[in-house]
Amino acid sequence: MRGARCSRAASRGDSDRPRRCRAKPGLGPLAGINAALHCAAARSLDAVLTAPCDTPSLPPDIAERLTAAVPAVFVESMPVTGLWPAAFAAALDAYARSNDGSVRGWGREVEALPYILDEILPNVNSLADLNRLSGHFP
């Protein structure tokens, strides 16, 4: 994601960093988004780019596409893939206390716009899904 539109980045997979930003149980994907927004805010980062772990193939320029769109945006066909301002952390806390954990619902709550991709994103939820994709990766 680093480039012309990103001067600093943090990765949740950073193994040398203390694990201070923990997800809240029971929120599904919103738990990860919530933890990431709080981590980003604590590190004075502007936004969080999210992607689901069961989507192995995102367009290489997805970060550029989403950052060029609007301050808050999610991929229409895969709403866990999105760009969320770190300033939304407290609003997501409030939403999580009173709603069903829907990422699409959260997007509506903060007036994030859906971004329509031309590509179909693969979603791996079973061994059959994984087997269908087996020839697509080196």
- The first-to-last residue Cα distance is 22 Å
Q: Mind summarizing the main beta sheet?
A: 4 strands, mixed
Strand content: 5-15%
Q: List SSEs in N-to-C order.
A: HEHEEHHEH
CATH class category: Alpha Beta
Shape: globular
Helical/strand content category: alpha+beta
Helical fraction: 25-40%
CATH architecture: Alpha-Beta Complex
Mean pLDDT: 81
User: How many discrete structural domains?
Assistant: 1
Structural write-up:
The protein is an alpha+beta fold and 138 residues long. The chain has a single domain, classed as Spore Coat Polysaccharide Biosynthesis Protein SpsA, Chain A, CATH 3.90.550. It is 33% helix and 13% strand. The protein has a 4-stranded mixed beta sheet, with helices on both faces. A hairpin with a 2-residue loop joins strand 2 and strand 3. Helix 1 packs antiparallel against helix 3. The longest helix is centred in the N-terminal third of the chain and has 14 residues. It starts with 28 loop residues before the first helix and ends in a 5-residue tail after the last helix.
Short description:
The protein is of the alpha+beta class.
Features:
about 140 residues, alpha+beta, Spore Coat Polysaccharide Biosynthesis Protein SpsA, Chain A, four-stranded mixed sheet, 5 helices, 4 strands, about 15% strand
SSE inventory with pairings:
Elements: H1 29-42, E1 47-50, H2 62-69, E2 73-75, E3 78-85, H3 89-98, H4 103-109, E4 113-115, H5 127-133
Parallel strand pairs: 2-4
Antiparallel strand pairs: 1-3, 2-3
Helix pairs in contact: 1-3
